[in-house]
User: What shape does this take?
Amino acid sequence: MNKGRIIVFSAPSGCGKGTMLGEILKDERFHLSVSATTRAPREGEKDGVNYHFITREDFMKRVDNGEFLEHAEYCDNLYGTLRSEVIPFIEEGKNVILEIEVKGAMQMREKYPDAMFVFIAPPSMAEIRRRLLKRGTETEDVIEKRIAQATMELGYAQDYDYIIVNDALEDAVADFFTVIRAEQLRAPFRSDHIDEVRKNA
Ligand code: 5GP
Assistant: This one.
């Protein structure tokens, strides 16, 4: 069986990445890695489903044990991708999506250059602010911090393989499946087929 791909999927807060992922994950070829974080759960979030919510001490112990593929600090909390959430699924042939911020993505770029890197951009900064206010889960202070963070993150967009603008959800999801298909057709991933054809020539 062919192995799956790692898909690094980043977007500043308020880019509608959660809604996009909801649509993408209806397709069973994709699996979402559940990250570990030291952030407190938001209302409705479940341990082991949205994140593995752990203490800073536990997080650092796991860093020392080499349990993370990448980890980074974001708005005063630690976030990391656990090896155990990714590698077994790749072996099973699933495409594993890592929904992570830019610093972690750049670590993945170094360690896993074969991964696919997708950046979700907003149509405008005004739209980010509007979406964050509408969500209503953060205080004004946190929103301002996330907007500053978003501005910084946009500076990394060019380091990704693909940039998808999430203006209309349906179009953004369609763009995602288009780049997935294009990736599948790239020559480095087609050698099995060419070998097979030549063997039977
Ligand atoms: P939130 O607190 O809104 O759930 O996530 C904040 C940021 O952390 C988002 O940009 C999200 O993509 C990022 N994040 C979530 N999990 C991970 C992870 O495992 N590693 C890294 N580097 N960032 C993550």
